[in-house]
Design brief:
Blueprint lengths: L2 H13 L5 E4 L20 H8 L8 E6 L6 H21 L5 H5 L6 E7 L8 H15 L6 H15 L9 H5 L2 E7 L1 H13 L25 E5 L7 H4 L19 E5 L5 H10 L4 H4 L8 E5 L9 H4 L3 E5 L8 H4 L12 H13 L2
Helix pairs in contact: 1-3, 2-6, 3-14, 5-8, 6-8
């Protein structure tokens, strides 16, 4: 099949987007029985996940997507499915741009879980603060269940993904890779969940990245990508103190990089975040201080591959200002370009991380 025919075939496939598997949380972060406001009892989380999350054995990569501010439930699932399908199409049409995927003999067949939570409010400062406070309450150890539920979800996915018989073949045909993708406040939930999942290690290590693996944390997420994170620029010092390893501390089970996009046109994490928290957010200006070295690059067009040197770092700040700008109407809207990440270039970043994890 020539490239033009492959593009037509992929375009047809993209037109009929597969829906992501949906997981719903309530305002306290509790997992809900599908289609109801009833929380799943904590003691039955594993049983519930086993009933509703059957990982396709042919999937090569598992994505967990958590949305952010001002996102309707249907939009969250559609965004997740769109990004994953765009990523798959990019690989199918131009596999030469993703050498890791082409070389491992397995290709790229992504599958996605979309985690939904009540994030809608008025597009005002009071509305932003309301959702910020809700996200915080959902993550607070004493009252919030979201980190525990998401950590349980990650541990379940890790335990039930196809494991290699020997670690040496993980990057070839036998393993399924686990990637975290968040937007806005959803990035906070994921960071909290990864920290919490450190309490429940299981599964294999991953060979693709240069970060040292610790045998006490065999469970790993192979990459984490957060679009326009709604958190202070010093969040990795103050809010997520155990995310990265340090002297005497193992760190959370994230074997690959933490990649964060930012854009100066993002008013939600610029204008509103500044007024609500006294400082601009990561989604507006990137990470400030952090306990590990950082690397900064720019978002690339879909026809420009990412090299390992671009992404193989503990924290990677990706300046997307040239692309995440919003239209004329949205640029000065309350959120600005906060949700302007729904683009093929974002999917290119996703599939590049999957390729480089091999």
């Amino acid at each position: 099949m020539n490239r033009r025919a492959a593009a037509r075939k992929s375009a047809v496939r993209t037109a009929a987007l597969p829906r992501a598997v949906e997981v719903d949380l309530d305002e306290k972060g509790r997992l809900l029985v599908p289609g109801t406001p009833t929380p799943v009892p904590t003691a039955r989380l594993t049983e519930h996940l086993a009933r509703h999350l059957a990982i396709p054995p042919r999937a090569s990569d598992i994505y967990v997507y958590v949305h952010g501010w001002q996102t309707a439930p249907g939009t969250a699932a559609k965004t997740a499915a769109t990004l994953v399908q765009q990523a798959r199409t990019l690989y199918e049409v131009h596999p030469e741009r993703y050498q890791g995927l082409a070389a491992d003999g397995r290709g790229y067949r992504p599958w996605c879980v979309a985690v939904r939570w009540p994030s809608s409010s008025l597009p005002t400062l009071a509305g932003y603060r309301r959702i910020r406070d809700r996200a915080h309450a959902m993550s607070t150890p004493q009252t919030g269940h979201a980190p525990y539920v998401l950590a349980h979800l990650l541990g379940y996915l890790d335990e039930h993904r196809a494991d290699p018989k020997e670690p040496a073949v993980l990057a070839n045909r036998s393993g399924q890779y686990l990637h975290l993708v968040g937007h806005s406040f959803g990035g906070r939930f994921l960071c909290e969940a990864v920290q919490r999942s450190a309490e429940r290690p299981s599964g294999p290590a991953v060979l693709g990245w240069s970060m040292a693996k610790d045998p006490r944390r065999p469970f790993t997420a192979d990459s984490a990508l957060i679009f326009q994170m709604a958190a202070p620029r010093d969040a990795f010092d103050r809010l997520f103190p155990t995310l990265f390893p340090s002297a005497g501390r193992v760190g959370a089970p994230l074997s690959g990089p933490l990649v964060l996009t930012h854009s100066r046109w993002d008013r939600a994490t610029g204008f509103w975040h500044l007024r609500a928290e006294g400082t601009s957010g990561i989604g507006h200006a990137g990470t400030g201080v952090a306990p590990v070295p950082q690397f900064t690059t720019r978002i690339r067009p879909v026809d420009v591959p990412y090299a390992p040197a671009d992404l193989d770092h503990r924290i990677v700040n990706v300046d997307a200002s040239r692309l995440y700008r919003g239209g004329r109407r949205t640029r000065l809207a309350p959120a600005g370009a906060h949700s302007d990440f729904r683009r093929p270039e974002s999917a290119h970043l996703m599939v590049s991380l999957a390729s480089l994890a091999r």
